[in-house]
Protein 1
Amino acid sequence: MRLLQILADSVVDGPGLRTVIFFAGCPHYCPGCHNPDSWASDGGEDYTVEQVMQQIEQIGSHRITISGGEPFFQPAALAELVAALAGYDIYLFTGYKVEHLVRDEQVRGVLARIDCLIDGRYVQALPDHSLLIRGSTNQRILKADALKTYLS
Ligand code: SF4
């Protein structure tokens, strides 16, 4: 998989001290994007799932946030990583809406394994500075129970 960075000890990407996996590549091109360097699919470096898991284990947190870029831009790699993270608390940021994501069988498998999805593109006209976890108010924080209703 192509990753921009594996970041230890983030306190702004979900509850608690989290390890953040930044996927390379994003097809959304949101105006006002906080991280346009993440758009290129050839940015960052190649990792195997084993290499990612080794770094995650070395860092030691069981709280993981998957971000980007757009993680679903590499659906097979994302599915493999999320399967390897069984037992971890997983937050996942995506520019897609959940209604779009549930149409794909492989993606549904990812959604069934995570603890929280923050969905939707960043909309510059709807900034949200009150909640660190969201960039704009259109984005939704969907915990596992809410995700189940979309998967049923
Ligand atoms: S989805 Fe995220 S990374 Fe992609 S363009 Fe929008 S704000 Fe930037």
Protein 2
Amino acid sequence: MKTLIVGVGGMTNGGKSTLSKSLMQKIPNSCIVAQDAFFKDDSVVPVNENGFKQYDMLDALHMDAMMSQVNAWRTNPQAFLKEAGQNAGSTMSSPDHVFVLIVEGFLIFNHRPLNEMMDKRYFMEIPYVTCKERRSSRVYKPPDPPGYFDGHVWPMYLKNRQEMENTVTGIVFLDGLKSKEELLAAVYQDVCKNINMLGGNLAAY
Ligand SMILES: Nc1ncnc2c1ncn2[C@@H]1O[C@H](COP(=O)(O)OP(=O)(O)OP(=O)(O)O)[C@@H](O)[C@H]1O
Ligand SMILES: [Mg+2]
């Protein structure tokens, strides 16, 4: 059995979830593990001296639980796929078929054990103004309090990004200002190339 783990990282509102879902729809037998599903309960996330909840750091996430999910997929992608029920179009096929896991989230490359599992790494970036604009048009749970973007989200992004650049190599940076279609086409093509390199069954793609 052949497998490929694709990491879709990036800053908040870079377009990670949008791209990941579209990729999954195009790649048979693929599925997604999303980091957003692993935030700790609000009651245990600490508050800093400015009163901002410290969500944008690894400590705010149940990374062990996320690792367990990724490991469950690695152990048996077929069973995981069936249970996750995410990819309705999937068909179980030949032994040459490559199972693809898309791991998406804003801190996936900052967690060393998770980063080490990735076969491909993409990072979606957008300028500060676009990021702030996109973020303000969304409603998060819990909602961002006034000043949260400039007081917590953006400074933590800069810090986390610096840490990532100091420790991780092989990241393909993507311009999140490009259209959704253009981003999907580029990443899909690149993933197919990697599937091909594994000697995977491209006929199904
Ligand atoms: N290529 C794009 N061009 C324009 N808008 C986009 C693009 N990709 C995503 N968006 C929009 O930006 C917003 C954020 O997209 P998305 O939820 O995919 O980002 P994210 O990186 O997963 O964000 P989060 O930090 O909430 O996890 C959405 O409103 C989405 O429709
Ligand atoms: Mg998202």
